[in-house]
Amino acid sequence: MPVGTNATVKAMNQDELKDLGAEIILSNTYHLYLRPGHEAINKIGGLHKFMNWQGPILTDSGGFQVFSLSPLRKITDEGVEFRSHIDGSTHFLTPELVMDIQAALGSDIAMAFDECTPYPASREYALKSLQLTSKWARRCKESSTPHSALRTPHLFGIVQGGTYADLRKQSAEELIEMDFDGYAIGGLSVGEPKNLMYDMINYTTPLLPQDKPHYLMGIGDLLDVLEAGSAGIAMFDCVMPTRNARNGTLFTSAGRISIKREEFKTDPDPLDINCGCYTCRNYSKAYLRHLFMNREILSMRLNTLHNLHFYLEFFRKMREAIENGEFDKFRGQQTPVLQNNFHGD
User: Fold this and answer.
1) Cα–Cα distance list, 191 to 8, 196, 344 (Å)
2) I want to staple 95 with a disulfide (CB 3.0 to 4.6 A). Which of 139, 194, 314, 345 is the partner?
3) Residue 241 and residue 308 in contact, taking contact as beta carbons nearer than 8 Å
4) Could you tell me if 79 and 94 are in contact, meaning their C-beta atoms sit under 8 angstroms apart?
5) Which element (helix H / strand E) includes 173?
6) Strand boundaries in 76-168, DSSP class E
7) Could you give the 3-state DSSP secondary structure of residue 30?
């Protein structure tokens, strides 16, 4: 899912996203609550109309943003008090308010409010964190749809538990008992070693109902995607393709490159000879470098378009391999390429 935190996938318009093959995008409850406000978006007709996107929209609950703004927040059983990173104003998010916000936005998939467990965390802290997440999840599930709702969104619960397998199992069991429409694994890629992250993915995913969607939150490294896909994860989101694009780091079939490097100053070739995106069909590496070095707006657009195309094509090929019963073959082909070419510029 391309990430459109503020009701926009940065540098892209909605027709471009559709042409690239994006079927669903992600927006963020926390950011839209602060600006322009969920009530304002609701009055305009909801997030789909507001941003002119007709496909499905998943909204994150804001739990990760609360986690990332830890110096500005205070967690209680009732909810989270925090200061806005925009103007310093004080707000109090509860599970009920988070559900009201997502319903007012007109989300197709809403995430339950959770506490994202940090790494490292003691077992005692991770246990308290998952217990709080379970309490909040139940309150989200029991929260009635407000009169301002444009639709009743599908609701996903979020498994927490840090890097403790028994706590992950406890969290999953408590959420499954509540019968959510889908299940996400949260609290990973927050600083833990890769082997621990993989252990938690491979341990937790088989615990989840096989007839419900499985979503690994905030993971975008393609080696991680292959590992998680093998475990049974079906949904992903990450800012990697768009954020890297704006910083001049581009993904190609030959590896990851930094377009600002001097060697590309007079390079007449396209960014990726194996890519059919608009950027690669029309522009040289020399021109892309020129745009980036001069901080031209077109640089962000062309780079983002290419990176999103690369990611969406990777997922399209992975889906095709799964449908044909050839995922192991696909993983075997892609792993050495990613290991050799995608770590470092």
Assistant:
1) 27, 10, 18
2) 139
3) yes
4) yes
5) helix 165-178
6) 80-83, 90-93, 109-111, 154-159
7) helix
For the chain, give every residue range classified as CATH 3.20.20.105: 14-238
d(CA 50, CA 7): 8
Catalytic residue among 60, 100, 224, 272: 60
Q: Is 100 annotated as catalytic?
A: no
Catalytic residue among 100, 114, 224, 237: 237
Look-up of token digits 């008090």: 81
DSSP 89: -
> Exposed/middle/buried for 102, CB within 10 Å: 0-12, 13-18, 19+?
buried
Residues 6+ apart with CB under 8 A from 99: 110, 113, 140, 143, 145, 155
Name the 3-class secondary structure at 258: strand
- Among the listed residues 13, 54, 51, the one whose alpha carbon sits nearest the alpha carbon of residue 32: 51
Tell me how far CA of residue 167 lies from CA of 14, 128, 182, 210, 295, in angstroms.
40, 10, 19, 20, 47
pLDDT (tens, 9 = 90+) of the chain, 345 residues, equals 999 999 999 999 999 999 999 999 999 999 999 999 999 999 999 999 999 999 999 999 988 877 777 777 889 999 999 888 899 999 999 999 999 999 999 999 999 999 999 999 999 999 999 999 999 999 999 997 666 777 789 999 999 999 999 999 999 999 999 999 999 999 999 999 999 999 999 999 999 999 999 999 999 999 999 999 999 999 999 999 999 999 999 999 989 999 999 999 999 999 999 999 999 999 999 999 999 999 999 999 999 999 999 999 999 999 999 999 999 999 999 999 898 776 543
Q: Tell me whether residue 60 is one of the annotated catalytic residues.
A: yes
Domain 14-238 sits in which CATH superfamily?
Queuine tRNA-ribosyltransferase-like (3.20.20.105)
